[in-house]
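Tutorial handout. Part one gives the primary structure; part two gives the three-dimensional structure as tokens.
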Amino acid sequence: MRTSRKLTVALACPEDIWPHPDWPAPDDPYVGRVVPLGGAADVVILYLDDPAAAVRELPAADIPAIVISPCRDTEAIVEVFRGGAGYLVEGDYCTCMLSSAVVGATVGHTYLSPAACAALREGARRLPTGGEALERLRELLSPRERQIMELLSTGLGAQEIGLRLRLSEKTVRNNLSNIYAKLDARGSTDAVLRWLGAAPVLRA
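Part two.
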């Protein structure tokens, strides 16, 4: 997916500790510039040691957010994800992934780095699942839709899912729209939580 204009990112982090001073690169196809928090932006990045603070600091405005933190605590990551923000574990991503996370956030995708994905799945395993109700919910999806949900729940976006399954990005997005309707999900975050059994199953 290419955007018609390059995106602006608002960054909130303690002074002089942002690890990517040269990001975005001049040839970054998606992200144009980084501004201090408070400026007009398409996406907010919160770089914090304590991800619990991220939930409190998420902007009141309807701007998608991404949290970057060294914290790998399962409960903290699940809480941030439930709040609708993406989560990248420090040292567990590259600047290309960061740009992808920014683009994904603008279209409602909650991007997770691999370690954050593992923590989310671990958190879901610890919670009581919906049992038979959860299985019935999953059975509402076609085999292709189940494949897409498995990949979505590992943190991949529509473009990456399309590459894995050899589908167009548009086809993946159409499937996701159908999945959200079937799972009674408001978007990708809600759908993943339902798919993993980490959110209430609404259908009997």
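Part three, for discussion. The chain has a mean pLDDT of 83. The longest strand covers residues 7-12.
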